[in-house]
Amino acid sequence: MQQAQRDAERETAREREAAAAARLERDLFAATVGQVIPLRRTVVPLPVRPRPPAIPQQRARDEAAVLVESISDEFDVESLLETDDMLSFRRRDIGPEVVRKLRRGVWALQGEIDLHGMRREEARDRLAAFLRMAAQSGKRCVRVVHGKGLGSPGREPVLKGKVKSWLMQRSEVLAFTYARPADGGHGALIVLLEPAERTQLSPRSAPPRR
After folding, report:
1. CA dihedral of 156, 158, 161, 162, whole degrees rounded to 10
2. What CA–CA distance (Å, rounded) separates 167 from 174?
3. Pairwise CA distance, residues 167 & 124, whole Å
4. Alpha carbon distance 141, 167 (integer Å)
5. Which of 32, 102, 169, 185 lies 20 to 30 Å (CA to CA) from residue 94?
6. Is 89 helix (H, G, I), strand (E, B) or coil?
């Protein structure tokens, strides 16, 4: 009986020693680490998928119009040609007095494009875009500089002849003539464009690019 009581007392003493050692260990850890602040739980938002870019409808319509109004290197100029001995051009519904006024510089120049030194494909595309924008902005008289071809292989004015053919195919062009010497002479053309209202109401069709 007494032995059992002593065993129970020894067990109780061991439990007290273990509890005291645990408290001492916790106190030592707290003194070493310092105050502990629990981390806040953050909510990570789901990634937002970007919207697909809007399709520029007007630009698509403009590009489609450019394709319709493209100009061809194989165009037969004899089907539209109305020229005089000064190497000018006018459409059949335009009187010769218009060309004479162009030659004298009656219309003020409202814009110009310099194609000199460009390759044929680049010059063709740049000229088409320039004429379309000029007509849309209401310009009536512009200058197209193509150069005299003196720097071309064999000194042949290849671009010079192509520019005249391209101009005849454009619905905006009413007439053109070589510039006066002060404005570029035979290295440039003075071009008369249709009024913007007329171009929108009754566009001429142009052959597709080949």
Report:
1. 180
2. 9
3. 10
4. 13
5. 185
6. strand
Q: Residue 120: inside a domain, yes or no?
A: yes
Is 196 inside a domain boundary? yes
How would DSSP label each residue in 88-147? -EE-TTS-HHHHHHHHHT-SPP--EEE-TT--HHHHHHHHHHHHHHHHHTT--EEEEE--
Q: Give the Cβ contact number of residue 199 at 10 Å.
A: 17
In the 8-state DSSP scheme, what is residue 77? G
- Say which residues have a Cβ less than 8 Å from residue 176's Cβ, sequence separation at least 6: 88, 89, 102, 144, 164, 167, 189, 190, 191, 192
Q: pLDDT for 83-105, tens place per residue?
A: 444 578 999 889 999 999 998 98
Residue 59 lies in a domain: no
The three-class DSSP label of residue 92 is coil
**Nearest in space to 113 (alpha carbons), one of 209, 193, 188, 196:** 188
CATH number of the domain within which 129 lies: 3.30.1370.110
pLDDT of residue 176: 95
pLDDT in tens, 103-138: 898 989 999 999 988 899 999 999 999 999 999 999
Q: How many CB atoms sit inside 10 A of residue 82's CB?
A: 15
Per the DSSP assignment, residues forming a β-bridge with 177 are: 190
Full residue range of the structural domain in which residue 90 is found: 80-201
Dist CA 66 CA 198 (whole Å): 18
In what helix (H) or strand (E) does residue 177 lie, and over which residues does it extend? strand 173-178
pLDDT in tens, 133-185: 999 999 999 999 998 766 555 444 678 888 999 999 998 999 999 998 888 88
